[in-house]
Write a structure and sequence with these properties.
Blueprint: E1 2-8, H1 14-25, E2 36-43, E3 53-61, E4 64-72, H2 75-98, H3 142-152, E5 156-160, E6 166-171, E7 177-180
Parallel strand pairs: 1-2
Antiparallel strand pairs: 2-3, 3-4, 5-6, 6-7
Length: 187
């Protein structure tokens, strides 16, 4: 996880930067999806001394951006308050991702009586219908394949790379892409 700490209208002391990086780094315990955090510290021209220091944090995760901000009497207490807000947001996001309802509520999956399996020996099963789909065979780079996949709006794209090898590019559900390459032969 990348933590970027910068000051706006203020020079940040090294110990404040280290404190912020250490505190924000603890967010990885809650979610491994966090890619980067950008923290901006500002000294406000406020008449209220309890709101003289402002800390804003933006957390980037695949498909999700979280933001928290806090005004306080010191940068240290504002960082702690922002960290608490980000923890709550990450916990909420994590429960939202893991606690999806499985089926309709109120339905039981256990039958009230035992069921014996039925064995059928002679099944005449026909093979499924095969649909043939063609793809362009002109060589393209992986970046061009990503752009082509975004333009078409599909989930998967077969393409020929610059070395005349067939590759497969597939969208990941959590963001990003899978690139499938053929195994190299060992001689």
């Amino acid at each position: 996880m990348e933590v970027i700490v910068k000051g706006k209208n203020v020079d940040l002391a090294d110990d404040l930067t280290l404190y912020t990086e250490r505190k924000i780094g603890k967010l990885t315990k809650l979610s491994t999806r966090v890619q980067s955090v950008k923290v901006t510290m500002t000294k406000n021209a406020s008449k209220n001394p309890n709101k003289a220091f402002r800390v804003e944090a933006i957390v980037n995760a695949p498909g999700q951006t979280l933001k928290a901000e806090e005004d306080d009497g010191s940068f240290y207490s504002a960082v702690d308050a922002v960290l608490d807000k980000l923890r709550r947001q990450l916990k909420k996001l994590k429960t939202k991702l893991t606690d999806k309802p499985r089926g309709k509520p109120g339905r039981s999956t256990v039958l009230p009586y035992p069921v014996e399996p039925v064995i059928v020996e002679d099944l005449n099963i026909e093979p499924p219908e095969i649909i043939i789909q063609r793809f362009p065979a002109k060589p393209m780079s992986t970046a061009e394949a990503v752009m082509q996949l975004e333009v078409t709006g599909g989930n998967m794209l077969l393409f020929v790379n610059d070395n005349a090898v067939v590759n497969c590019l597939r969208k990941r559900p959590e963001g990003g892409y899978f690139l499938y390459l053929p195994e190299e032969e060992v001689k």
